[in-house]
Amino acid sequence: MAIKCLKCDSENTDTARFCSNCGSPLEPSKDIEVTKTLETPNEQLTTGSTLASRYQIIEELGKGGMGTVYKVHDSEIKENVALKLLKPELEE
Q1: Residue 78, class by beta-carbon neighbours within 10 Å (0-12 exposed, 13-18 middle, 19+ buried)?
Q2: Is residue 28 domain-shared with residue 62, that is, in the same domain?
Q3: Which of 8, 11, 16, 54 could join 22 via S-S bond, C-beta 3.0 to 4.6 A?
Q4: pLDDT tens digits, 70-88
Q5: Domain count, the chain
Q6: What are phi and psi of 38, to 5 degrees?
Q7: Which whole-number Å values give the CA distances from 70 to 4, 17, 21, 84, in the listed order?
Q8: Domain, as residue range, for 88
Q9: Is residue 42 predicted with pLDDT exceeding 60?
Q10: Which residues are CB-neighbours of 86 under 8 A, at least 6 positions away?
């Protein structure tokens, strides 16, 4: 299924994020499901809070240019894991 560029009307592959002709960002397919981690703002995460009804924050491990890494307890797999959340400006 091809994606049409809204700016120049050229056809692009369904996996393309940017138009191969003009470089404009392409609209994602309407049938793509947004994950709960994208719906949840990450600026209010504190120890003990839960993200996406699944990840309980244990501690912040580090912060860098791309985002923040947390040690979390994943209630679905019942293990502690590292979870990196990208800065909102990098998520597009």
Answers
A1: exposed
A2: no
A3: 8
A4: 999 999 999 999 999 888 7
A5: 2
A6: -80, -25
A7: 38, 28, 39, 6
A8: 33-92
A9: no
A10: 66, 67
The pTM (predicted TM-score) of the whole model is 0.57
The predicted pLDDT at position 41 comes to: 60
Look up residue 88 and give its DSSP letter.
Answer: G
Q: Within this chain, do residues 49 and 80 fall inside the same structural domain, yes or no?
A: yes
Does one domain contain both 28 and 50?
no
Instruction: State how far the Cα of 22 lies from the Cα of 9, in Å rounded to an integer.
Output: 10
Task: Give the pLDDT score at 29.
Answer: 56
State both tokens at 2: 């091809």
What pLDDT was estimated at residue 57? 96
38 and 65: one domain?
yes
| 1 and 28 fall within a common domain | yes
